[in-house]
Amino acid sequence: MPKTENPSLSAVASTQKRTTHPNLILAICCTSLLIVGMDVTIVNVALPAIQTDLHARLAGLQWILDAYTLVVASFLMLSGSISDRFGRRRVFQIGLAVFILGSLLCSRAATIEQLIAFRALQGFGASMLNPVALSIIANAFPAPKDRARAVGVWGAVAGLSLGIGPLIGGALTETIGWRAIFWINIPIGITAAILAALFVPESKAARARAFDPVGQSLVLTGLATLTYGVIEGPHAGWTSPEILGIFAVTAAAFLSFVLYEPRRRDPLLDLRFFRSIPFSSATGLALCAFSCFAGFLFLNALYLQQVRGFSAFHTGLFTLPLALTMIVASPLSGRLVASHGTRPSLLIAGIAFLASTFILTQLDRQTPIVWLLAVYAFFGIGLGMVNPAITNSAVAGMPLSQAGVAAAIASTSRQVGAALGVAISGTVVASSRALGGDFTSATHAIWWTMTGCAAAMLIIGFASSTAWARASTEQVAHLLEERH
């Protein structure tokens, strides 16, 4: 028997939809995406200024970035479930309020510990925005063709927000100070909240998934302890009781999660998804691409300012080729995926990542500016091409009822990849410098590791689009339909 939404709620929603143009709803949702996306990258160019002002060590800088991405990764799927149950517009507005509060507190932080805690609060608010906004967009554009166009606009804004974050961050840090990078979120967030209250219709899922507090706790524990161990390992000692104990907790949390989730009717993460080769490939691609991207931005912001002596603003200018190429590559990739599948986009992305990371393996204190700009451009092409392909690979062939969950897992993988990229990059550099190496030579191990990730992306891009891979998705879709 088909399920229907609450009649009175549907009537209200339909009335609002008649008076609200879907493109206005799309614009409001994209406004939230803009500030959330920028906050992933805007902080990078301000790190040296923050380090000087708050007397932070390298691990503290890593936590400024990872506190945000880890919390987003941990609560994305929970936020989607809550919005389905209690109302997407309501959760969207709560997310904006929490994000604005976190931004205000970040701008007032007096110590590195306070800044890290307030970044985590920002991340909690951000986890209620993007997945919920996508659900709102899906309701505003019921026709598949219109929805595809809207998602394409969403993808372009996502690329733009990631690309312009360092540029805006550099300008604000140079002219006003690093605290201004958090002030910018406040007026934009307040505007989005007011417009959402006026124009975005409320909606709920016909059947909301049950909460999974145990699974949620295990995910948060596993990700937090893994990141803590990687970041603090060089400082505390890799064989110290503290670090060994932390990694033991990580292993126990993930093992418990794998054993517990299949027993639930509505698991936080249905592990059968991973029997689909395209879905598993999307997860692996997201981890590889975003760990490379986050690690690259983190290390290059430090390299350009602390090694080359560039200002925060000039460091931000280096990201201009990245922003421009992402703006061009994202919609092009969307069209390629629609007409030729994911393979062309993934192969182009892998080649672009490979070119950029290989150039970086030769990085020294006098690397020509033109080569550095080329690296940013190649990274922009790679990220712009891979993003739509990741989303498509995650949801392709899945039952419609599971497509949102699959997309949320892919988004979570992006955030996990970004957190691990920063954690591992900083840790390798810290360990190398402890042995007497300079910063630039210490980064070479990371660039070679990223080159390996780029090569893996090429292999995954080819394998995930074979007939064998598509057949695996059909089998998983059949299992999921049986269950639901």
Structure overview:
By secondary structure, the protein is mainly α. It folds into three domains: 14-201, MFS general substrate transporter like domains (Growth Hormone, Chain: A), CATH 1.20.1250.20; 213-263; 273-484, MFS general substrate transporter like domains (Growth Hormone, Chain: A), CATH 1.20.1250.20. Helices cover 81% and strands 0% of the residues. The chain has helices at residues 7-19, 22-41, 47-54, 58-86, 88-107, 112-127, 130-140, 144-175, 180-183, 185-199, 213-236, 241-260, 277-307, 312-317, 320-340, 343-360, 369-395, 400-434, 439-442, 444-463, 467-483. Helix 2 (22-41) crosses helix 8, helix 4 runs antiparallel to helix 5 (88-107) and helix 4 (58-86) packs parallel to helix 7. The radius of gyration is 22 Å and the shape is globular. The chain starts with 6 loop residues before the first helix and ends with a helix.
How are the SSEs placed, and which strands pair?
Layout: H1 7-19, H2 22-41, H3 47-54, H4 58-86, H5 88-107, H6 112-127, H7 130-140, H8 144-175, H9 180-183, H10 185-199, H11 213-236, H12 241-260, H13 277-307, H14 312-317, H15 320-340, H16 343-360, H17 369-395, H18 400-434, H19 439-442, H20 444-463, H21 467-483
Helix pairs in contact: 2-7, 2-8, 2-10, 4-5, 4-6, 4-7, 4-11, 4-18, 5-6, 5-7, 5-10, 8-15, 8-17, 11-12, 11-18, 13-17, 13-18, 13-20, 15-17, 16-17, 16-20, 17-18
List keywords for this structure.
484 residues, mainly alpha, Growth Hormone, Chain: A, 3 domains, 21 helices, disordered N terminus
